[in-house]
């Protein structure tokens, strides 16, 4: 492989996305090559305003750290250097755009020289980064489209500008890579060479999810009430509904401190930039407690309906989320991820519903422990053209953790109707969440047939039924007995954990990078010799980045 200058829409932080996975896999395979990872620029006027508003020394220290650590190494990925450019002025000012682009170009040139990058490929993720082409000494250009930001904008000059920049990059790039079928269809006829590579997953990272659940065993009654196994209750008439008196330990981040959406031009980090990658993925709950103390101490009442991913108003159906919180007042709805909400509607919803939580982002290393506290993984996405352009990483991660998945009928998730409970509208979404608890019961029956007292709470026709047909106990959760042509929403009581995890293993990041390297070779961006990875390269190990949002 050639050296690589990777211009990203997002920072290299503890929340791993497509860009980090691709770069880390390339660095593992080609340890003698250099990768310069270019983050979104720091916008100096925003930094200045933050300092003026703050009366605490912490803000000043954060700014000093951000400005003083703009070129850094990643200890466990020796071939990667991370560089953060500066943006000096708002682009609409006369002459500001040309000034900003010139300074950014020179900054990347100097950083590439410092990193030892030679004869590189240029990978562009932002639609507005076309000005860098032919200015960095690159041998070829790859344009990677992960979101159709044009569709997230209302009609107007901003939308037209994004469309023009995107189409121009498609025409100029030697290879355009997209992550979804909708993006592929919309760029056909525009891109010189087009390749569809969906997102992927490191399935081994999530294999421990089931073992990491620290909560007591038990089953769910038909009304959604969780009954611990220690009670030995055998009838829903005697089950008691736990009260939800507590909220998440640690205050949910204020919307005033939400990060700026990555689609915007003016982005500043919400974390210290003193980032590093530890030597290995820490698998214990202690690791999560150190990285995410609020979540580690949280005692979310069950059932827990959980979501992981960036919180964008353009993606999440907040009305549906609130309906779910109302439908299961004894349970919890948890939205885990960095907040990019563009108004105060999420903050108002959090105040209104004590069982709705948005604890913020967690390191990639701790995600399995967080998902272990979910009973059902939910995807309450809006149905829109923008959402149709996505290929959410959470699809593959939710499959890898094996837990029941309930999703609105959106791209990616609808491709797996045998493994995902799809909902056409709000009432069916709520019903599928209820049905998913029956699968939780079935999986609990398989993994924990009895409690310490030799008793398991049971609920007639709930834990081992498929519609009106009984399922033999020895068939529940047995992969060989499953017919994946049947949608789970008509198969209420069968444990599909093994099938989901098996499917996830077919969509590894390693396999995605194999496809990418083949495409580079076919486009004459690299030679056959360049494409040969070192045979003794170590396995990819991804750890938490030591910084806190």
Description:
This protein is an alpha/beta fold and 549 residues long. The chain folds into two domains: 4-200 and 508-522, Rossmann fold (3-Layer(aba) Sandwich); 205-235 and 283-504, Rossmann fold, CATH 3.40.50. Helix content is 32%, strand content 14%. It has helices at residues 18-29, 44-53, 57-68, 96-115, 157-172, 181-187, 203-206, 285-291, 293-296, 318-327, 345-352, 367-372, 385-388, 393-401, 426-447, 497-504, 509-522; strands at residues 4-7, 35-38, 42-43, 71-74, 77-83, 86-87, 121-124, 140-145, 175-178, 194-196, 218-220, 226-228, 304-308, 332-336, 356-360, 376-379, 405-408, 421-423, 465-466, 469-470. It is globular.
Radius of gyration over all CA atoms, rounded: 24 Å
The total count of strands amounts to 20
Unreliable stretches: 233-288, 449-490, 535-549
CATH homologous superfamily grouping of the largest domain: Glycogen Phosphorylase B
Multimeric state: single chain
Shape assignment: globular
CATH topology of the largest domain: Rossmann fold
Sheet with the most strands, sense and barrel status: 8 strands, mixed
């Amino acid at each position: 492989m050639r050296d690589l200058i990777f211009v990203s829409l997002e920072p290299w932080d503890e929340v791993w996305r497509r860009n980090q996975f691709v770069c880390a896999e390339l660095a593992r395979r080609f340890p003698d090559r250099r990768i310069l990872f270019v983050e979104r620029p720091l916008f100096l006027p925003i930094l200045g305003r933050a300092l003026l508003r703050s009366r605490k020394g912490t803000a000043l220290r954060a700014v000093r750290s951000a400005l003083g650590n703009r070129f850094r190494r990643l200890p466990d990925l020796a071939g990667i250097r991370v560089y953060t450019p500066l943006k000096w002025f708002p682009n609409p000012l006369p002459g500001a755009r040309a000034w900003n682009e010139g300074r950014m170009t020179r900054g990347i040139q100097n950083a590439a020289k410092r990193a030892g990058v030679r004869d590189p490929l240029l990978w562009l993720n932002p639609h507005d980064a076309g000005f860098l082409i032919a200015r960095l000494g690159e041998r070829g250009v790859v344009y990677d489209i992960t979101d159709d930001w044009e569709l997230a904008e209302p009609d107007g000059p901003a939308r037209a500008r994004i469309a023009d920049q995107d189409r121009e990059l498609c025409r100029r790039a030697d290879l355009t890579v997209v992550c979804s079928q909708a993006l592929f269809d919309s760029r056909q006829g525009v891109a010189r060479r087009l390749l569809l590579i969906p997102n992927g997953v490191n399935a081994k990272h999530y294999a421990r999810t089931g073992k990491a659940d620290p909560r007591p065993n038990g089953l769910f009654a038909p009304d959604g009430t969780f009954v611990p196994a220690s009670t030995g209750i055998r009838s829903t008439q005697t089950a008691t509904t736990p009260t939800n008196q507590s909220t998440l330990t640690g205050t949910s981040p204020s919307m005033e401190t939400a990060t700026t959406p990555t689609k915007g031009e003016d982005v500043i980090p919400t974390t210290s930039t003193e980032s590093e990658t530890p030597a290995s993925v820490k698998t214990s709950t202690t690791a999560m407690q150190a990285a995410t103390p609020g979540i580690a101490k949280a005692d979310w009442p069950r059932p827990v309906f959980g979501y992981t991913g960036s919180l964008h108003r353009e993606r999440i159906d907040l009305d549906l989320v609130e309906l779910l919180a109302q439908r299961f007042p004894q349970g919890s709805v948890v939205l885990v991820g960095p907040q990019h909400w563009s108004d105060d509607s999420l903050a108002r919803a959090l105040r209104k519903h004590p069982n709705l939580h948005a604890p913020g982002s967690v390191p990639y290393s701790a995600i399995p422990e967080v998902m272990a506290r979910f009973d059902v993984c939910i995807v309450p996405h809006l149905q829109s053209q923008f959402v149709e352009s996505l290929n959410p990483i959470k699809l593959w991660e939710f499959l890898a953790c094996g837990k029941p998945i309930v999703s609105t009928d959106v791209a990616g998730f609808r491709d797996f109707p045998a493994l995902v409970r799809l909902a056409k509208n709000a009432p069916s979404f709520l019903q599928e969440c209820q049905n998913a608890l029956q699968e939780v019961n079935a999986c609990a029956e398989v993994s924990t047939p009895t409690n310490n007292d030799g008793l398991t709470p049971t609920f007639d026709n709930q834990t081992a039924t498929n519609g009106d047909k009984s399922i033999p106990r020895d068939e529940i959760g047995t992969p060989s007995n499953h017919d994946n042509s049947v949608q789970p929403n008509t198969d209420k009581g069968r444990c599909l954990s093994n099938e989901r995890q098996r499917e996830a293993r077919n969509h590894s990041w390693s396999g995605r990078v194999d496809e990418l390297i083949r495409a580079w070779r076919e486009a004459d961006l690299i030679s056959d010799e360049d494409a040969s990875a070192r045979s003794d390269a170590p396995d990819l190990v991804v750890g938490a980045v030591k910084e806190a949002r």
